[in-house]
Amino acid sequence: MAIIVQKFGGTSVATPEKILAAARKAIRAQKENNQVVMVVSAMGHSTDELIELARQITDRPPAREMDMLLSTGEQVSVALMAMAIHALGSHAVSLTGAQIGIRTDATHTKARIKSISTRRMQQLLDAGNIVIAAGFQGIDEDLNITTLGRGGSDTTAVALAAVLRAEACEIYTDVDGVYTTDPRLLPEARRVPRISYDEMLELASLGSGVMHNRSIEFGKKYGVAIHVRNSQSDAPGTMIVAEPESRDVAVCGAALIKDEARVSVTGVPDVPGTSLDIFSRIAARNVTVDMIVQDVGEGGKADISFTVPKNELQLTLEAVQDSIRVFGTGTVTHDLNVAKVSVVGLGMARQTGVAERMFRTLADQQINIQMITTSEIKISALVSRDHAQAALRAVHEAFQLEKAPPARAEPESSAVNAADPSDAADVVTRLQGIDMEELFIDDIALDETQARITIKEAPDAPGIAARVFEEVAAAGIFVDMIVQSHGGAGRASLSFTVPQSRLQKALNVAQRIASEMACAQVTSCPRVAKLSVSGVGLRSHTSVAIRMFRALSEAGINLELISTSEVRVNVIVDGSQGPRALDCLQTAFADVLR
Ligand code: ADP
Ligand code: ASP
Ligand code: MG
After folding, report:
1. Ligand 3 mean position to 192 CA, how many Å?
2. What's the gap in Å between 298 CA and the centre of ligand 3?
């Protein structure tokens, strides 16, 4: 008999009526000859209310006690759900994370799942019960209760679907599926019938709160097709699978994050080991960093900027202060009034002019871009928080996200071509004995075909990036990595890489633009080496960037540019160091390369 996992989010179990409605859906699936596991979140806003209660007691609650507190939300809802199913005449048993045997590490408030036992669930299912699992929680080696991070019930659901080799994993929520952007922010957003794991991973970690990003890591790693649907209707929803909706369009979605802060560290030594020192201190505090931008050094000093979640700013500043103390030089500043706007799409890896269109759109709205980072499938721009909504709307419109991609999109029914369960079973077997959320690296690559150009001391004003990339694109040059740092003092520095054969042409463009902007200078490196480490969920595994920094720093190799995404961390080093750097990385990741 097939197993179906159905997850119900907070709003979908917010009232007794909604709990009964969810119970009916599960009973219906069971009557259709399936074994059903429900994963349930805490009712409505009860997790927020528990957090607020804790805050009224203390500013710094011990993380262990926070988990003890937060896990109670889900315990309430699973019990009520089991009662609802009994009341409707079927059998159900509710289980906490500990009772299921969801083992996690001990990182309270953002624990990672190590293993899940299926024995008790399977026995209960075989005896005719609907199993009701508490989402978001687990238990560590010492039997302490842990939680997986806000929104973590999605991750519980997909992880259960993986280990149970479920035929379907249905995520019931309060919208009709995954949209091109948050439909509450932009009513013109369009529901997509299908989206790829890689795109959803990026969107989820760049602000699309509809799915917990780590649930998508599980989906990708274990081949679980994830079906996002509205709990109040039978609308078709969205399938999250390997294939995107369209390979022809550059951008499939846009996202916005307003609760991050920018941190800039200026005047630190431009020597191997500087990034390592800063980011390993931050990682030791379990803070996830994004938009790392390191400015090509000058006069022996480097500037590094990045973003962190606002609620982790204090911890981050402490870490950076420790580094500055060790370096004996450097200053740290931060800005809370920022927002990150991103566009994502598998198609952009093969098209020119995508970055240019995004920058032009923002420039036309008179919105200044403070920082830029790109990866193969996403572009992020940091803007003032006051412009967040306008920036999102403009970008959504510029890429015509409200319109379905032309022709080749297949009919909706084919979207339900779930991953083949036998493939999933193979993966589960292959990954047995490895912690479920263990780091997973599948490739380490060296690209020696690129050159770097940097425009320094450009005015920090709207339209500069748009102008540069418009002219570079007009010359038919494909730009790979783009990094713009936060200038401070009204100045910005913009670096990008192009194929070596196009360096002269791109340099001419850069020099012409620079000479028009009186104070800008252009530097370049005719041969750089780009090293990429690819895998699953690299941004949440902060240890990947650190391992790269450590390996390169120990070999005395200096980093020129860095870019991070969910699926890849890229670094640019001097061209002469390519093969040696590759060697170092292969050794450093030997134990996690699968
Ligand atoms: P649940 O409680 O069911 O887990 P969440 O609040 O976590 O629900 O997620 C659903 C919400 O995610 C929606 O109400 C919507 O406002 C928001 N959201 C953000 N980005 C997107 C997106 N790209 N597509 C759909 N919903 C999104
Ligand atoms: N109840 C938890 C939260 O609000 C987990 C979840 O809903 O996914 O974050
Ligand atoms: Mg959620």
Report:
1. 18
2. 45
Among 131, 146, 174, residue at a domain's last position: 174
- The count of domains in the chain is 2
State which residues have CB under 5 angstroms from ligand 3, the bound ion: 9, 151
* Helical spans, DSSP H, in 460-565: 464-474, 503-516, 543-554
- Looking up tokens 């970055």, which residue turns up? 355
266 closest CA partner among 323, 336, 312: 323
* Phi, psi angles (nearest 5°) of residue 67: -65, -40
CA 359 to chain centre: 22
Is residue 238 in a domain? no
Nearest protein Cα to ligand 1, atom 12? 210
How far is residue 229's CA from residue 168's CA, in Å, rounded to a whole number?
12
Check if 210 has its Cβ closer than 6 Å to any atom of ligand 1: yes
pTM exceeds cut of 0.90: yes
Residue whose Cα lies nearest atom 5 of ligand 1: it is 210
On whether residue 569 sits in a domain, the answer given is: yes
**pLDDT by position in tens, the chain (length 594):** 999 999 999 999 999 999 999 999 999 999 999 999 999 999 999 999 999 999 999 998 999 999 999 999 999 999 999 999 999 999 999 999 999 999 999 999 999 999 999 999 999 999 999 999 999 999 999 999 999 999 999 999 999 999 999 999 999 999 999 999 999 999 999 999 999 999 999 999 999 999 999 999 999 999 999 999 999 998 999 999 999 999 889 999 999 999 999 999 999 998 888 888 999 999 888 888 888 887 666 677 888 999 999 999 999 999 999 999 999 999 999 999 999 999 999 999 878 789 999 999 999 999 999 999 998 899 999 999 999 999 999 999 999 999 998 866 455 444 444 455 556 566 676 667 778 888 889 899 999 999 999 998 888 788 888 989 999 988 889 899 998 887 666 678 899 999 999 999 999 999 999 998 877 889 999 999 999 999 887 877 777 888 888 999 999 998 888 888 888 889 999 999 999 999 999 999 998 887
Note the ligand closest to the C-alpha atom of 190.
1
Which ligand sits closest to the CA of 10?
1
Same domain, 389 and 498: yes
Query: What distance in angstroms lies between residue 189's CA and the mean position of ligand 1's atoms?
Result: 13
| Ligand 1 atom nearest to 7, measured from its CA | 3
Hey, how many other C-beta atoms are within 10 angstroms of the C-beta on 587? Answer: 11
One-letter amino acid of 12: S
**Looking at this protein, which amino acid is placed at residue 389?**
Q
Task: To the nearest 10°, report the CA torsion of 287, 482, 484, 253.
Answer: -60
Does residue 481 form part of some domain? yes
Q: Whose CA is nearest to atom 1 of ligand 1?
A: 9
Measured in residues, the chain has a length of 594
Identify the DSSP state of 179.
B
Counting DSSP H helices and E strands in the chain, the numbers are 17, 26
Domain containing 67 equals 2-174
- Ligand nearest to the Cα of 156, by number: 2
